[in-house]
Every structure is written in C-alpha cells, then in structure tokens.
C-alpha cells in the first residue's frame, strides 16, 4: 500500500522541531561558555536530539561531571562522526531550510488549486445566472447553496494560507539569523582578530584536513620583535604584525593557508607542494619582508626594516600535522641559531638542538 504524502501540518511540525533543537543547542553551548564550532554542534545535536544514543551517553558523562570542554566534545564528535563532521553540521542546517522551501512550494501549489476551484465555482455561478429566473426549481436552489458554501470554504482556506505564510516567513527569518549566528561563531573561533588570518584553532583544523596528503608547512617568526615593542611601543608592533601577515598572504597562492600562531609567529600550509617549490615561496617571503621599510602610521617616525626566520618541513602524507609542525619548529630554531633572516628546512638528525 502506497504511503500518503506528508501533510503541510506534519512538515511544519518537523521544521519547528528542528528549529527548536538548533535553538536549544545554541543556548546550551552559550550557557556553558563553549564555542559553538561544528564539532561541538554535532556533539550537542546528538546529546539533545537523540538522548538514548551512544553519543548522548558520552556527553552526559561530561555534563554530570561538570567538565564540559571544547576538547572533550571534539573527541566525542570525532569518534561518533565521520571526518566530514562540518559537512554533516551544514547538512542539518540545510535540511531545515530545504523543509521550509518544500512547505512554501506546497503552499503555492495549494493556492494555485484554490484559484482553479474559484474559476470552476465562477463558471457554475454563471450557468445558474443564465437559468430562467421565473423557474429556479429545487435543483438550482440546491446548487446555489452548494456554491455559496464552497465559496465560504475557499475563503477560509485562503485566510489559513495567508496566516501560515506569515508564520513560515517568520521561521525563514529565524533560520537565517541562526545561520548567521553560527557562521559568526565559527569565524570568531577560527580567525585572528588582529590580522584576519587563521588563528591556531583554524590552523589545526586545516592541518587535520591535510592528513594523508603531501604538503609543506612553514613556520615564520619575526626576528628581535621584543626590541621593536620596547623601542617603538606595542601599537607599532601590532602594525608590523598586520603588515607581515598581509605580505605572507600576498606571497602565497589562493589555495594556501596562512595563520598567525600568536605573538609574532606565523605558519603557512602549502598543499601538494614539495621542498623545492616551498623553498621558492619561503625565499620570496623572507626577501619581501626584508625589503620593506616600516614607519609609525600616525607619526611617520621611521622604524626601519625587520627580518623573519623561517623553518620548513615537508610531508608525504605518512606523517600527521603535529609531527610536521614539530619538525618545522625545529627548522625555525635552526634558522634563528644560524643567524636569523634565513630559511631552513628540516632534515633528520641535522642538528643537535640541545647544544
């Protein structure tokens, strides 16, 4: 037996439930002072949306112990979800939007059907009006009564559609606001406020996405940055950090990722890039920064030139991002120990870091 299509009422109920669940997730995360990134959203969606599920039990342990944290929720999300958790989170949001669109389409179809019904009723009324007025007869009277009743029902249905349409538009505004809020939270948690580059959280996410692929990681540090702050003040230092970040972005490809690790340290992910090509990029970065002459923005006081030390490490997909970061960091310190303003790539057992 063929199942009946879901009614507009049932679809509306499902959409409202999805919106309420999303709202509960946002409120629960904010109430626990947690950053609502996609993995946290996925863990809370399982916890609040499927209380009897395995993931819900794991999250409940953290809740009852009073030790909710982004790290703990990330670990749960990784265990219960495939690597494309971000895509699944977006799919949840898109599903609600698609449901609203489907309801709107159904409502438009229903309104079109009402228009056709009204045209049919109009033709019946014209036929009744053409009957001789002296001999209306019982059949004509009954038809007129039926037409009148049908017009009343059509009017009631149109009023209901208008009311439902207003409610639907309000729900669409709510889901749009929710999407903007989630996107703003995601942006706040992955971007550096000073430079607009990725922050450490954003870098880690992109490093994880490179697992199993060949790429090169560059670690970059502004040389003698403390003396710049001491001589010219922290606002001038912030200006140099912003300028260096902009130069890094300019020196790499659109598909590469640039991050500010914190302080005066940066990182660059070069996907599908070997040491030879990465060395060219690193040399371009070093030369571009060294050629720049900095001045205080408001006073024009010359600051002079600054240099950067760069360490690089290449991976063939067999090592993870954490290992590559450690290697690039070792290469960076080798550049500093070698006199700064230079590029060094990691080589196994190349340096005795303890000496």
From TrEMBL:
It catalyses: 2 GTP = 3',3'-c-di-GMP + 2 diphosphate. Its EC number is 2.7.7.65. InterPro entries: Diguanylate_Cyclase, GGDEF_dom, Nucleotide_cyclase, Rev_trsase/Diguanyl_cyclase. Residues 213-348 form the GGDEF domain. GO terms for molecular function: diguanylate cyclase activity. This is diguanylate cyclase. It comes from Methylobacterium hispanicum.
């Amino acid at each position: 037996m063929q199942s009946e299509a879901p009614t507009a009422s049932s679809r509306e109920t499902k959409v409202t439930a999805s919106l309420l669940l999303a709202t509960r997730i946002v409120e629960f995360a904010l109430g626990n002072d947690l950053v609502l990134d996609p993995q946290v959203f996925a863990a809370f969606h399982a916890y609040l949306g499927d209380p009897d599920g395995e993931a819900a039990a794991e999250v409940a342990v953290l809740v009852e112990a009073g030790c909710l944290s982004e790290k703990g929720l990330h670990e749960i999300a990784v265990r219960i979800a495939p690597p494309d958790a971000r895509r699944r989170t977006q799919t949840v949001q898109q599903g609600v939007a698609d449901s609203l669109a489907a309801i709107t389409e159904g409502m438009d179809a229903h309104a079109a059907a009402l228009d056709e019904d009204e045209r049919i009723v109009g033709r019946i009324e014209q036929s009744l009006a053409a009957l001789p007025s002296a001999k209306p007869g019982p059949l004509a009277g009954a038809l007129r009564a039926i037409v009148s009743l049908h017009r009343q029902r059509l009017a009631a249905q149109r009023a209901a559609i208008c009311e439902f349409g207003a409610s639907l538009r309000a729900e669409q505004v709510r889901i749009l606001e929710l999407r903007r809020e989630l996107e703003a939270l995601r942006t706040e948690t992955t971007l550096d406020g000073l430079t607009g580059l990725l922050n450490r959280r954003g870098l880690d996410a992109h490093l994880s996405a490179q697992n199993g692929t060949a790429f090169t990681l560059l670690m970059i540090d502004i040389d003698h940055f403390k003396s710049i702050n001491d001589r010219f003040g922290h606002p001038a230092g912030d200006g140099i950090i912003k300028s260096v970040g902009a130069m890094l972005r300019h020196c790499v490809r659109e598909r590469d990722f640039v991050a500010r690790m914190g302080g005066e340290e940066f990182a660059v992910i070069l996907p599908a890039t070997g040491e030879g090509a990465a060395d060219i990029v690193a040399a371009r970065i070093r030369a571009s920064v060294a050629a720049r002459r900095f001045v205080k923005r408001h006073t024009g006081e010359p600051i002079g030139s600054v240099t950067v030390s760069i360490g690089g490490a290449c991976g063939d997909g067999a090592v993870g991002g954490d290992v590559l970061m450690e290697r690039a960091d070792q290469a960076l310190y080798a550049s500093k120990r070698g006199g700064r303003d230079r590029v060094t790539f990691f080589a196994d057992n190349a340096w005795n870091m303890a000496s």
